[in-house]
Design a protein that fits this description.
globular, 11 helices, Peroxisomal Thiolase, Chain A, domain 1
């Protein structure tokens, strides 16, 4: 049976907190009418610190996208290789036992893809399959898990390496002065994570049993990027806060059909760290005990929202405390408005 082994995570050394971001807003947008409300929201966001690949002073001074692309490529390859090697070791495999590489990243672009770089850096087999995922945002980590599950479910002799890398700091748009820009600048962060999906059950971990994809109609404007020379103009519509009530029935019926229990009876949840309001809504709509969302909240507080990386980090945190026989619901949400969900049993 397909099993997610112990993940690996990595965060860069440069840390920022809420005060740092409010200082940047004050300097870059001294006359903004949104400052007071933004500062109130930032202080209540439950994000204590985040990690960046460069000092915040350098983030503010970044050049055009061509210059940022080179920084992205160097940082992404270095972080990806680091977590990939650790994840393969955690899965008790050799590099020549990896059959597919799935790499997710929505905060930069390179060609050849990150998957090709990993095949070369790790000396994977020449016939290793590649799936680079670049446009799914925060849902991409869970999507990669879903695609790996579908592949291994029919090929129990195969293993898939999943690597997620995000450098949100390289998307910073100095002149973007809307309220939602300020909130995004205080929430998103950099990091990397990796996990191996083994097609067999010869390792401790989360044995997946089912997965499902859901895209809610007429929600395209909820999360969007506008690509500009000066950075990503990220749009996070306020209606995104009302997205979870649309998704919750799918999560509930998914658990009832596949695990034959209600979502609030699952032993632990593995939710990507969309933000405090998103986690609050998941608790409310699924009637969850707050303790079942503790790993997602801890990840949010300590690393912010690292997009596709976050759900793998929450999986790692759950891995450290889950016991054999417990059930898990794994889910993430992103542009589209899309949700990817999986359920499994710990072994």
């Amino acid at each position: 049976m397909t099993t997610l082994s112990k993940p690996a995570t990595y965060y860069p050394n440069y840390e920022v907190n809420a005060d740092d971001i409010m200082t940047v807003i004050e300097i870059c947008h001294p006359d903004s009418p949104h400052k007071k409300r933004a500062f109130d929201m930032i202080q209540n966001a439950e994000v204590k610190k985040r990690h960046l690949i460069m000092p915040l002073t350098d983030v503010v001074k970044q050049g055009n996208f061509g210059e940022r692309a080179k920084v992205y490529q160097d940082a992404a390859i270095e972080m990806a290789e680091k977590v990939a090697r650790e994840a393969i070791h955690n899965a008790r495999l050799n590099v020549d036992e990896i059959d597919m590489v799935i790499a997710t990243s929505c905060t930069g672009f390179m060609m050849p893809s990150l998957t090709a770089h990993l095949i070369n850096r790790l000396s994977l087999r020449a016939d290793t399959k590649q799936i680079p995922i670049a446009q799914l945002g925060c849902v991409a980590g869970a999507s990669a898990i879903g695609r790996a599950f579908e592949y291994c479910e029919h090929r129990p002799d195969r293993n898939v390496l999943i690597v997620c890398v995000e450098t949100s700091s390289l998307c910073f748009h100095k002149e973007a002065g809307r309220l939602q820009d300020f909130i995004s600048n205080s929430l998103f962060a950099d990091g990397a994570a990796a996990v191996v999906m083994r097609g067999d059950d010869q390792v401790s971990g989360l044995r997946l049993t089912h997965n499902q994809s859901v895209t809610i109609e007429d929600t395209m404007p909820y999360i969007e990027y506008q690509l500009t020379d000066k950075g990503f103009k990220f749009s996070l519509d306020k209606d995104v806060m009302h997205s979870i009530p649309h998704v919750a029935p799918y999560l509930q019926s998914f658990c009832q059909e596949k695990l034959e229990i209600d979502a609030n009876d699952v032993d632990n949840t593995i939710f990507h760290t969309g933000g405090r309001r998103i986690l609050d809504e998941l608790e409310r709509c699924l009637n969850l005990d707050p303790d079942k969302v503790k790993h997602s909240r801890a990840c949010l507080a300590e690393t912010g929202n690292t997009s596709s990386v976050a759900v793998i980090d929450v999986l790692r945190r759950t891995f450290e405390q889950a016991t054999k026989g417990e059930t898990s619901l794994l889910a993430a949400f992103g542009p589209g408005f899309t949700s990817e969900m999986s359920v499994g049993i710990w072994q």
